[in-house]
């Protein structure tokens, strides 16, 4: 796994998150959350640092070449305030249809707007249809020179402050899978009476964000707004979501970084009635398990984002794996840490300004937006048959597991991005990986058993691949989850094998076995000796100052 | 003789009906009002007042002290239906009840009259039990109560307590002896002439946002014999007597919150269409709804069994309460999270679908889970209870003059042909299995039921072996002990479900029980919570799910509480 100087630079420039006030401190994050306030100060600080340039491809005047770097930047911001990270990253995410399919003029206009600090929205969902995009009712009627829009979108991030909206519309004269078209609407050029910004929607977490809706009434947009090909809006939407879903894990990782650091810091402080709590083996085991999940999650997120640029044909699977697993691990692990912290974590003040509780609420969004858990698990189940393809070369993805991976500059090669994967070279390497793990295990019986477990689960998955399963059934959901876990386990194993013993890369072999067990047997408790070993590693990294140690990790 | 739980639920139904339709925005007891006060951080006085106007205060006062409270079941049922409206309001009144409990158990007639008067005046009381750095509600400082003999001066601040900012009285524990002995005092602001009674600013929480959570502070506050509850130095006993009741109340709050979330999501799942059909018809949605419904039935069964245990086998009450506290809030919070997946984006919106009540309950239930986190650190309470049986506190309802009304035992054999002694001494799982063999297994679930009962008998035996094998000095503070505690809680739940089925299987209106479906549903779910996989190929499991869904929908359509007992709601 790479460390990015830019991400380290950003982290260092933002200063101590424990300062009582100031942009991108925990205190500031909590104050904004309590007041449901748009984080002007923090966004302005990021703009001053040059964050918007990292959202725009280099070829269009920005500094974005590596999506892995963008993931790392999002993580750095999310560590301080996931709300700010969601807002700050949204111009890139909302602009994905343009990066993928925009005309040179559209790409130039959007790039210039983002570099100037203007906002972009991706408007897909409607009040009554949700994930069922084909049932959307916002229409774009063809008229001479353009389209006339009628209808409303709901639950759209930043729409009330956006200049551009990537808008998914139904063309009434089209039917079926090709009835939807994507438009790039410039709200500055739309007559004010052509649209209405709907009231802000109050949310459970990310309370400082401005999430609302927009209603169009007989609004004319010119032909030049057409984004991609007419009737191919669904295809473009799915490909855009594949990209976005691959980057969402950066937000979850940032939240888990801080949640773990916060819990570690709180639990190591002696309290009057309990003595030094980290002396308790249960607390150490829980912290070690969270640390392991964090390492697993960052490995999976890194592999999947690299796959997006290295082998886009596999990205529909990899993005679903990352979007399901990383937010799921972060959310469930934060809940577990909350149980260990007890009542204290629910306070909106005191320790670390009460940010832990906010992190729990904020992370719940990441498993929900741009593809909820059921949706991405269905997507995986629908693609599991790709495992039946013969003669798939595992070598095709070797590069993504190597520490020195360098991608082609974004968005080069992404025209190969499809809506579903036909082959899976990651999982194709499963048998080979298991053999290599056994060979390298030496006397490490735990690693041998973990390799056997992976082999067994891989076999089960291949059996699933040969059976017709309805992706929307309960069995389909289970197949999707198994696919995600096996795919992730192979990513972890291959990364560990490539990384050797460098503790700051994907990980030395000593945590491979617990990592595979955590992925494939998530409810099983790790042996206490393993937990103690991981806890010591965690302590070395986080003590004596958890907040600063985060900064060093970059 | 009608079971106390039946009478209690009937009383709770009256309260619910008096509070009106929670979806009526004009009602003071509506979801809309609860969400609004929560958003504004205002104490839900409107709902508390409405409940008091109905007469709730009488049910906070034991019959032995002139009130209307006759059973623990009444407490459970009343707080459950109140919590289904607003957990914040229910928690505030539950805190008042807990604060009064030491007085009902050990107070003087004068103290009882005083507390009864406050409750009848719709005033709030404060009492903390666990959940902070101090573990129990103990004034900070080593010499918190200075003085000897019959007069003390109280100094210090309590941990965070509910109603801390607006309490008309507080039950306070303070150190009064050189050896650190604790004494319980019943204090009112006016009782301490010359002393200072105050509260620190309200603490902010995101769940139970409108609650009056703060530290009560005392300085030079005088107290004499008249303020001592029970005997000086005996406060720890008071805490230990109160704790099991507090755990039971937490279960009631969790049940109420989960009921509303399930109801709201059923409503959504029926009306929301996706891919051309109601999402209720999607198999994963149906599975989630039935799982949560089953969790609710299990949680209810263990809670009712806990109340029964307090009457029939009081010595087991503390242990059983620890299991209930371990299980019920967790089932509720996990259930709400699962329902949030069905509700999708609307679960994340604070004012959508039923005024955003699920989003509020999601935050509130998370707080309920840790209201009594005395057993989260350093070792889970159920583990302690399971491994230190000899060290258990005496039952809170052991005779202590004058005896609270609900401690009276029922005559042996009064219920369902089972004697109290049988009940207390036997495994419900074993009894259910024996009955099935003796009476014949009902179709179509009898065979599956026998298999499941057999599996739980085996698991219980294995759990005992694990417990006996735990020899390391800090074993009870480790993850294995935590897992064992969870296992015990699930096995206890299986026992409770089995007893419930044994008692209800012959009720004529309950085909779902008579066929064994109810118990299969609960035991299958518990087995899965203990690590078993969901049966995929068993055609019967689909039938069972459909039968459970039909029962769930019937309760929804008929506006009944999601319960094994028919409780008509507004």
Automatic annotation (TrEMBL), chain A:
InterPro entries: Acyl-CoA_Oxase/DH_mid-dom, Acyl-CoA_Oxase/DH_mid-dom_sf, AcylCo_DH-like_C, AcylCo_DH/oxidase_C, AcylCoA_DH/ox_N_sf, AcylCoA_DH/oxidase_NM_dom_sf
SUPFAM superfamilies: Acyl-CoA dehydrogenase C-terminal domain-like, Acyl-CoA dehydrogenase NM domain-like
Keyword tags: FAD, Flavoprotein, Oxidoreductase
Pfam families found in the cross-reference section: Acyl-CoA_dh_1, Acyl-CoA_dh_M
Protein name, UniProt field: Acyl-CoA dehydrogenase
Organism listed in the record: Sphaerisporangium flaviroseum
Start and end residues of each Acyl-CoA dehydrogenase/oxidase C-terminal domain: 231-383
Domain Acyl-CoA oxidase/dehydrogenase middle: from-to ranges: 122-218
Cofactor(s) needed by this chain: FAD
Family statement drawn from the similarity comment of this UniProt entry: Belongs to the acyl-CoA dehydrogenase family.
UniProtKB/TrEMBL annotation, chain B:
UniProt keywords, alphabetically: FAD, Flavoprotein
Entries under InterPro entries matching the protein: Acyl-CoA_Oxase/DH_mid-dom_sf, AcylCo_DH-like_C, AcylCo_DH/oxidase_C, AcylCoA_DH/ox_N_sf, AcylCoA_DH/oxidase_NM_dom_sf
The keyword Ion transport is assigned to this record: no
Biased composition (Pro residues): 393-404
Domain Acyl-CoA dehydrogenase/oxidase C-terminal: 238-369
Required cofactor(s): FAD
Region (Disordered): 387-408
Stored Pfam families: Acyl-CoA_dh_1
UniProt record similarity statement: Belongs to the acyl-CoA dehydrogenase family.
Name of this protein: Acyl-CoA dehydrogenase
Biological source species: Sphaerisporangium flaviroseum
């Amino acid at each position: 796994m790479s460390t990015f100087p830019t991400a380290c630079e950003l982290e260092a420039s933002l200063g101590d998150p424990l300062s009582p006030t100031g942009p991108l401190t925990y205190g500031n994050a909590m104050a904004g959350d309590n007041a449901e306030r748009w984080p002007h100060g923090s966004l302005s600080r990021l703009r001053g640092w040059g964050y918007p340039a990292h959202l725009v491809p280099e070829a269009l005047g920005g500094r974005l070449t590596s999506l892995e770097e963008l993931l790392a930047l999002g993580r750095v911001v999310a560590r301080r305030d996931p709300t700010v990270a969601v807002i700050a990253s949204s111009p890139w995410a909302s602009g994905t249809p343009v990066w993928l399919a925009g005309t040179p003029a559209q790409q130039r206009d959007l790039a210039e707007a983002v570099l100037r600090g203007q906002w972009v929205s991706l408007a897909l969902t409607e009040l009554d249809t949700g994930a069922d995009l084909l049932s959307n009712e916002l229409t774009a009627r063809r008229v001479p020179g353009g389209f006339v829009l009628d209808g409303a979108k709901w639950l759209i991030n930043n729409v009330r402050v956006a200049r551009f909206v990537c808008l998914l519309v139904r063309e009434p004269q089209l039917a079926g899978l090709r009835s939807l078209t994507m438009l790039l609407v410039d709200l500055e050029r739309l007559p004010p009476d052509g649209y209405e910004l709907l009231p802000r929607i109050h949310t459970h977490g990310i309370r400082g964000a401005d999430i609302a809706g927009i209603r169009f009434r007989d609004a004319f947009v010119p032909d030049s707004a057409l984004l991609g090909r007419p009737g191919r809006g669904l295809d473009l939407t799915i490909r855009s979501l594949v990209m976005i879903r691959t980057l969402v894990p950066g937000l979850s990782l940032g939240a888990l970084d801080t949640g773990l650091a916060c819990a570690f810091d709180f639990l190591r402080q002696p309290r009057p009635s309990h003595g030094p709590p980290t002396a308790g083996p249960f607390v150490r085991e829980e912290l070690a398990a969270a640390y392991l999940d964090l390492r697993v999650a960052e490995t999976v997120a890194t592999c999947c984002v690299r796959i997006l640029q290295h082998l886009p044909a596999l990205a529909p699977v990899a993005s679903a794996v990352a979007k399901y697993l990383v937010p799921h691990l972060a959310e469930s692990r934060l809940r577990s840490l909350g149980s260990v912290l007890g009542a204290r974590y629910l306070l909106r003040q005191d320790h670390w300004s009460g940010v832990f509780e906010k992190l729990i609420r904020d992370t719940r969004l990441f498993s929900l937006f741009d593809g909820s858990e059921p949706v991405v698990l269905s997507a995986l189940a629908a693609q599991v048959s790709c495992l039946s393809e013969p003669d798939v070369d595992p070598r095709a993805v070797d590069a993504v597991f190597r520490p020195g991976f360098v991608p082609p500059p974004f968005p080069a090669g992404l025209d190969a991005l499809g809506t579903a994967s036909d082959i899976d070279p990651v999982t194709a390497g499963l048998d080979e990986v298991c053999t290599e793990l056994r060979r390298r295990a030496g006397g490490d019986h735990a690693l041998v058993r973990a390799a056997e477990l992976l082999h067994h689960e891989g076999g089960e998955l291949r059996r699933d691949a040969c059976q017709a399963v309805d992706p929307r059934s309960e069995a389909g959901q289970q197949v999707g989850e198994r696919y995600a876990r096996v795919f992730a386990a192979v990513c972890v194993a291959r990364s560990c094998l490539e990384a050797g013993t460098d503790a700051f890369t994907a990980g030395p072999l000593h945590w491979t076995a617990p990592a595979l067990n955590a992925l494939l047997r998530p409810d099983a408790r790790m042996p206490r000796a393993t937990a103690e070993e991981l806890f010591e590693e965690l302590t070395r990294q986080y003590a004596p100052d958890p907040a600063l140690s985060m900064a060093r990790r970059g | 003789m009608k079971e106390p739980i039946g009478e209690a639920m009937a009383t709770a139904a009256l309260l619910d009906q008096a509070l009106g339709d929670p979806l009526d925005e004009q009602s003071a007891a509506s979801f809309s009002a609860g969400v609004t006060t929560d958003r504004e951080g205002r104490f839900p006085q409107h709902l508390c007042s409405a409940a008091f106007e109905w007469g709730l205060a009488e049910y906070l006062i034991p019959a032995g002290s002139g009130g209307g409270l006759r059973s623990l079941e009444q407490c459970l049922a009343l707080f459950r239906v109140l919590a289904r409206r607003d957990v914040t309001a229910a928690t505030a009144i539950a805190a008042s009840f807990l604060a009064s409990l030491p007085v009902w158990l050990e107070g003087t007639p004068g103290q009882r009259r005083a507390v009864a008067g406050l409750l009848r005046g719709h005033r709030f009381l404060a009492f903390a039990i666990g959940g902070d750095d101090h573990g129990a509600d103990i004034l900070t400082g080593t010499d918190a109560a200075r003085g000897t003999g019959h007069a003390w001066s109280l100094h210090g601040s309590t941990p965070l307590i509910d109603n801390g900012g607006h309490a008309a009285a507080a039950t306070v524990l303070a150190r009064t002896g050189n050896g650190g002995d604790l004494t319980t005092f019943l204090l009112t602001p006016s009782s301490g002439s010359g002393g200072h009674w105050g509260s620190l600013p309200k603490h902010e929480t995101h769940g139970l946002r409108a609650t009056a959570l703060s530290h009560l502070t005392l300085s030079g506050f005088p107290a004499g014999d008249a303020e001592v509850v029970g005997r000086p130095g005996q406060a720890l006993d008071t805490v230990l007597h109160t704790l099991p009741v507090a755990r039971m109340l937490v279960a009631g709050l969790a049940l109420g919150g989960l009921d509303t979330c399930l109801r709201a999501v059923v409503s959504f799942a029926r009306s929301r269409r996706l891919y051309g059909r109601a999402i209720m018809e999607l198999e994963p949605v149906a599975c989630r709804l039935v799982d949560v419904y089953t969790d609710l039935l299990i949680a209810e069964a263990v809670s009712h069994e806990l109340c029964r245990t307090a009457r029939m086998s009081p010595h087991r009450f503390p242990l059983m309460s620890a299991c209930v506290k371990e299980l019920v809030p967790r089932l509720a919070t996990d259930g709400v999270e699962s329902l949030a997946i069905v509700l999708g984006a609307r679960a994340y919106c604070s004012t959508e679908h039923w005024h955003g009540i699920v989003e509020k309950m999601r935050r509130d239930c998370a707080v309920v889970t840790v209201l009594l986190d005395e057993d989260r650190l350093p070792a889970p309470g159920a583990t302690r209870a399971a491994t230190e049986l000899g060290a258990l506190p005496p039952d809170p309802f052991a005779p202590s003059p004058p005896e609270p009304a609900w401690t009276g035992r029922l005559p042996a054999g009064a219920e369902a042909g089972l004697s109290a002694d049988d009940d207390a001494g036997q495994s419900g799982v074993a009894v259910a299995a024996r009955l099935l063999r003796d009476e014949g297994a009902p179709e179509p679930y009898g065979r599956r039921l026998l298999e499941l009962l057999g599996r739980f008998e085996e698991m219980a035996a294995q759990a005992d072996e694990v417990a006996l094998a735990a020899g390391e000095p800090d074993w009870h503070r480790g993850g294995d002990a935590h897992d064992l505690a969870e296992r015990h809680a699930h096995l206890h739940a299986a026992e409770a479900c089995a007893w419930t089925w044994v008692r209800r299987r012959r009720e004529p209106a309950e085909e779902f029980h008579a066929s064994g479906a109810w118990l299969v549903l609960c035991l299958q779910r518990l087995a899965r919570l203990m690590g078993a996989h969901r049966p995929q190929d068993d055609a019967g499991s689909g039938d069972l799910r459909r039968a459970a869904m039909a029962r769930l929908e019937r309760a929804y359509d008929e506006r009944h509480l999601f319960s094994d007992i028919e409780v008509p709601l507004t």
